[in-house]
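The instructor's notes for this session suggest beginning with a concrete chain rather than abstract definitions. Hand out the sequence below and ask the class to guess, before any prediction is shown, which regions might be ordered.
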Amino acid sequence: MGHKANKIHFIGIGGIGMSALAQYFKDHGTIVTGSDRDASPVTELLEKKGIEVTVGQKAENVPLDAEVIVYSDSVPEDNPERIRARELGITQFSYFEMLGEVSKGKKTIAVAGTHGKTTTTGMLAKVLKDAGASPTAVVGSIVKDFGSNYLHGDSNIFVVEACEYKDHLLEMSPKVLVITNLEWDHTDFFPSLSALQETFRKAIEKVPADGAIVTNPNDKNIASLLSDARAKVIDYTKEQDYKLRLLGEFNVMNARAAAAAARVVLPIISDVTIASSLAEFQGTWRRFEYKGKTARGADVYDDYAHHPTAVRETLKALRAKVKGKIIVAFHPHLYSRTRDLLNEFAVAFSDADKVLIAPIYAAREVDDGSISSEILAERIRATGTEATALDFGAIEAELARTGLGDTIMTMGAGDIYKVADALVAQDK
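After discussion, reveal the predicted structure:
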């Protein structure tokens, strides 16, 4: 089978899941090569770990002796490296297919849900590690506590962040399924909340009778899906309130979910181990991350929030923490999400004093003219919050004028974090 290969080539190796999987294979003695369109903090991490990354994608990157190709979801069939691999007759797996292969025969704990997946996965991996269970983990961001998005483990426990987009979650066969919460998202794939719920219903039904589903059964979007569960349902909201370094009510919920899942996986774990591990958890890259100060003394935070609920909750937590003005630079992610959740986005920025909106991150979508950053800015202004649509250069210039006592937050799933990095670098 594919995951017993001696040499694997990754197309799009800089992807956050892809890079974790690449580290997993290198860790298990496979020769790993890879390519990506751009260099990034992730490709630098891979180079440090001794994995060769080629920047730029062309047919000759594919090693003639590669036995398996793993490609990122964002890499289309007509990518020159995928075409070359087909010509060479090399077996190809998508990232999620390969993740499914790797997790076969392991005790897999999949963490899914609309918000908090990454933090909950990181917390759960750390708690189990600190308890001596030696889990392997694949996380959707770089966990500061591990200095990586991959954790080496010696047991058969496999903790993985699972995404519902394009039904990828259904490639997994977890013994324990964690569902943090559920809201309509990935609107380009799921035409409605009920379509998204259907995928989760299937995932719930797949969990075996001797497994467990760790969730909030009082969540109205989840409650109706649990009737056909064979596995026992564990209510993570019954966990105690854990003291955390991380801000925000949402992180308290993430910690409860991680604690409840840890108890399922390791019934002998003590309350003290859970509490002390969670209290030390440092968080992950791009999740309410403090970046430093600008040359003029403003504090800079960065966050990956790209759904209205995450935006609203993150800004609420920031408002509770800081005194001065909050200036947000938001990079909308996808035309479909911005258009379909426009009413929710319009009211999500109420805790900000000023919102600067970058041009919408298109990915592979086509602009049909029905939505734009200007339309979003106009809708936010209508709620009484100052908002302007600007390009990246103008956003950076505007933020650089922000002074001491005020706070900047860059937000979104695209490249907006680079603006935060640039602002803080000017102070160095």
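Then share the key points. The chain has a mean pLDDT of 93. The chain is about 35% helix and 20% strand.
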